[in-house]
Amino acid sequence: MSAALKAQLRATALARRDALDPGLRIEAALAIAEAFPLERIPVAGRIVSGFLPIQSEIDARPLMDRLRAAGARLALPAFPDRKGPMIFRMLERGAELVPMGFGTYGPGPEQPEVQPEILLTPLAAFDVRGNRIGYGKGHYDQAIARLDEISPRIAVGLAFSCQQVDAVPSEPHDRRLDFLLTETGFRAF
C-alpha cells in the first residue's frame, strides 16, 4: 500500500514542480543559497555532497558555490557500477564530469571516493516531519544508511515549497531529513 501511495504522492508533487515558471526556479535556487544557515551548520573543512539538477529539480549549484566559498570541500554522487550502490567522489574545479546515468554527470574514477559529512539531498516530495520521497530507487536512503554506520551524517533536503505533501508514508529503510531548504526558508526536523 505505501509503495502505491508514495508513487501517487511523487507524481503529484513532481507535476507541481514541473509546472513552475523558469524565473521562479532561478530565484528559488538563489534563495536557498542565501538561506543556508552557516552559523548552525558549519561547513569549513567538511565534505559536503551536492548534486547537479536533473529534470525540474531545484538547482543546488548556487548553494554549492556559497558553501565552497565558506570552506567546504565539495563532492558529487557517482555510480561506478550502474547497478551498484551510489558513492561520492570529490568535485574539483576543472575536473571532467562523466555521464552517471539518470540524466546527470559526476566525477570520473580518477577522483577519490569520499564520505561526506553533509549531504544536500534531492527529492520528489516531503512532509512537515522531514520524511522524503525520492525517485523510488532508494539510492540516497541506502547511501546515507551506509555513511551513518560510520558516523551520523547531516541530510539537508533541497526542494521547492510546492513539493510538500500532507504526509509521506514511512518505511523502515527510509531516512528522514535533518533539515530542509526551500525558497521560503530553512526548516529543522
Automatic annotation (TrEMBL):
<keyword id="KW-0479">Metal-binding</keyword>
<keyword id="KW-0067">ATP-binding</keyword>
<keyword id="KW-0460">Magnesium</keyword>
<comment type="similarity">
    <text>Belongs to the 5-formyltetrahydrofolate cyclo-ligase family.</text>
</comment>
<dbReference type="Pfam" id="PF01812">
    <property type="entry name" value="5-FTHF_cyc-lig"/>
</dbReference>
<dbReference type="GO" id="GO:0046872">
    <property type="term" value="F:metal ion binding"/>
</dbReference>
<dbReference type="InterPro" id="IPR024185">
    <property type="entry name" value="FTHF_cligase-like_sf"/>
</dbReference>
<protein>
    <recommendedName>
        <fullName>5-formyltetrahydrofolate cyclo-ligase</fullName>
        <ecNumber>6.3.3.2</ecNumber>
    </recommendedName>
</protein>
<feature type="binding site">
    <location>
        <begin position="132"/>
        <end position="140"/>
    </location>
    <ligand>
        <name>ATP</name>
    </ligand>
</feature>
<feature type="binding site">
    <location>
        <position position="52"/>
    </location>
    <ligand>
        <name>substrate</name>
    </ligand>
</feature>
<dbReference type="GO" id="GO:0005524">
    <property type="term" value="F:ATP binding"/>
</dbReference>
<dbReference type="GO" id="GO:0035999">
    <property type="term" value="P:tetrahydrofolate interconversion"/>
</dbReference>
<dbReference type="InterPro" id="IPR037171">
    <property type="entry name" value="NagB/RpiA_transferase-like"/>
</dbReference>
<dbReference type="GO" id="GO:0030272">
    <property type="term" value="F:5-formyltetrahydrofolate cyclo-ligase activity"/>
</dbReference>
<feature type="binding site">
    <location>
        <begin position="6"/>
        <end position="10"/>
    </location>
    <ligand>
        <name>ATP</name>
    </ligand>
</feature>
<keyword id="KW-0547">Nucleotide-binding</keyword>
<dbReference type="InterPro" id="IPR002698">
    <property type="entry name" value="FTHF_cligase"/>
</dbReference>
<feature type="binding site">
    <location>
        <position position="57"/>
    </location>
    <ligand>
        <name>substrate</name>
    </ligand>
</feature>
<dbReference type="GO" id="GO:0009396">
    <property type="term" value="P:folic acid-containing compound biosynthetic process"/>
</dbReference>
<keyword id="KW-0436">Ligase</keyword>
